[in-house]
Amino acid sequence: MNLTSVFWDVGFYLFGVAVMLFIYLPFSPMTIDLVNFSRGTQIAIYRRRHVLWAVGGFCLRAVLLRGLLGISGADGVLDAGSRLSESLVSPHTAWFWITLVTIGVLALLFWSGYVPYVMTPPSRPQILTVAESDNLLRPDDMILGLVYGNEVRAYPRDAIARPHYFMDTVGNTPLMISYCILCNSGIVFKSELDGRALDLKCVTAYNNNIIYYEPATGNFIQQLDGKIIHGPDAGKSLVAFPVVLSTWSAWKDLHPETKLYYAPSITLRDKMVAWMLQTLIPISKLSKRSKPWHRIRGTLDSRLPAMSFIMGVEINGDACGYPMDNLRHNQVLSDAVGNEPIVVFYDVEHDVGGVFSRKMDSSRTLTFDATIKPETAVVARDQETGTLWTVAGRGYEGPLSGQSLAAVPHFNKVFWFSWALFKPGTRVSPSTP
Q1: What is the pLDDT of residues 295-304, one digit of tens each?
Q2: Which of the residues 108, 127, 203, 218 has an alpha carbon 20 to 30 A from that of 21?
Q3: Going by C-beta distance under 8 Å and a sequence separation of 6 or more, which residues neighbour residue 124?
Q4: Do 225 and 189 contact (CB within 8 A), yes or no?
Q5: 83 near 89, Cβ under 8 Å?
Q6: Where are the domains of the chain?
Q7: Which CATH class is domain 309-428?
Q8: DSSP letter at 408?
């Protein structure tokens, strides 16, 4: 056997596999802990993926070609009979078969676990009524609830957990409903920027939180930042709207007019990944952990348990977290964030909360006291008019009956560890030692 030939086969093979794994490892939930690259490194790898694919592919194809030449024989003419059988299993062609199997394994890995391929939104969603939805959802199934203008939507959490986002049009406005299961972070972004339609895709996760990419411009968006972290529009923020995490039963009680966005998994890959997420990392399992699912870069903030739920609010660069454990005992909490007066409502009966502006208009700011009426979801009364308010921020009885408080963009029941990592200067209300 020619040692020089073997050297080249081994060298091309190892380098090709190393390059392919370098592309794959930071972008697969199964292997991201093996490398735990910085956010900048992950972005740099993804931006250069085509060059890396070309290099890795060239190396592996070179080994295949050299193996084919070995099978064909030195003169390029295929041997016959026993000589062909011998050539197919000769040491000279061993790397051909090894490389062929390796390419098959790599193809399977990329098909089943590479985030930019796996996390794609459904193409044929349906909008269903409550009656139709009751045949599909159990009362305790979790949804992401959205109130946008006069329309109300519900998005099943188990369904959105795989693609991490749905595309929907509500009230003629194109929206991206975003959800990251590892942080339990849900938010809605307007899928436009400076009048330009956005076409985003998932590419990777940093500190357990998803990063989106816009192929047309090269912009990268961190979900919990809500702004472009890299690209030509770096620093710009997407317009955001809040969603409420709720059970289907509670949501339709509060919003009987709601419609359900239904998009079941159809393809084999979608079903397989959805099953994996629901089996391995359901929220019930995540919330019982003492630390995040994946390794993090940075230090956990010990003011609250890492996996405890909070309401996370950021306005004008000022961030504050409101622990759900506290809201269960203080269902109405008034505060100011970024010099904007807000109120946090929580309904223990329905296990639903929301964050709203206390400004009714430019000249009137309301002050709220807790007034709990579980049967009507009323949680507060304002001192100025005596109006009763539901947990959905809607006037129930009194002078302002029928009016609604403006919802404040926030992360509803997000895990504390993720909020603190991405908002390192966050306050906690009430303050903790």
Answers
A1: 999 999 999 9
A2: 218
A3: 263, 266
A4: no
A5: no
A6: 3-114, 126-286, 309-428
A7: mainly beta
A8: P
